[in-house]
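User: Could you check the structure of this?
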Amino acid sequence: MKKARKSLFLASVALTAILASALFGIAANTSPSQQASQQSPPQSQPVPTVSSVVDRDINGVEELIINAAEAMPEDKFNFTPATLNIPGADYKGVRSFAGEVKHIAASNWLIWSSLTGEALPEGLKDGNGPANLQSKADIINFLRDSFALGHRAAATLTTENMLQSPAKSKSTRLRLAEFGVAHAYDHYGQMVEYLRMNGIVPRPAVTNPSDRFC
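Assistant: Sure, the predicted structure tokens are below.
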């Protein structure tokens, strides 16, 4: 019995030595940078701000609308449902697809420029946009510039000024910033209908997966 106990004790000591040696080998082969990464806590996400939240909203609608504008072929860019002569429908006087894109861009300028104080582009007098913009390329460039303005407008927002009203406006800065987003989504819905009437399925957004609703 004593011999059996002694054998078990020696086996236990040997196993402990083997495990200790193995663990020491692993530690010795681990670089200092790997050891630091294993020990360091995970990095925390940036704290959201009113500016970053609004900027994300602008990103989402911007990607959807630019994708939709680029999806419509040049020869159909001035499409309007009135040309389909749908029985019982009344599309007389509605904006064309190009008109929708120009209206979104023009409205972006009219809404968000009040936050940045920037001058309106030449020829922009109302929500229809400059009359000289006719080609698909020029209209999409106008659209992109209007969303670039939106990001600059979002960057001006702080918790101290978001409830203040800019000059010549009765709305708060935060409401104006988000109203631009809401207005763009409204007209994006019309762009989607125009695309589908032409057999085109709009691409979803990649930036904000939650926006994939079309």
